[in-house]
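Our preliminary data section would be incomplete without showing what the modeling component actually yields. Below, a chain of 169 amino acids is followed by its predicted structure, encoded as tokens that our downstream tools consume directly.
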Amino acid sequence: MKARRLLMVLLGAGLTIHSQPIHAEPRRVLDDRSHHLGLEGEREWRDLEGTVPEARSLQITFDAHANAQPSTLFIRQRDVKLKWTVLLNGRKLGALDLMEYPEVTTITVSAGVLRDGENHLSILSPEMPDDIFIEEIALDSRAPAEACRDGIIRVHVSDKESRRRCLAG
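Predicted structure:
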């Protein structure tokens, strides 16, 4: 009863109470499987001998809402030596970074590229052999400048000769 009386006093004083809508997290993972992509035939790396790539290119279908503002696509990649084009709903967004070491590529999704409902993301292979790995694809509803502020940096230091990991002091 006391809570109801307090509410009546507040409303009577001309105050209004606003509830904040619950927003979903701005970043969501679209695909978290590991994908080995490349051309069939001779493997680029010795440790991949005897393996067959999952596919030449990667196609992901996901549901989303149309974006009135720029959004950000994050692609965790490794072993990329050639240009792999990234398309969303048939529109070229850019390409994976040319980087052999694991990294996360950040690509801007311009306003209006996402559709309400089903969307199609493609990572297209170059016409030359290049074995790559895609480890995760995520979409953030915020523009890159804001979406990248929340990042975590992990640094591992190792001894050059022994390659043993060094501990920070």
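The helical segments are 2-12, 144-147. Residues 1-23 have pLDDT under 50 and may be disordered. Preliminary results of this kind motivate Aim 1 of the renewal.
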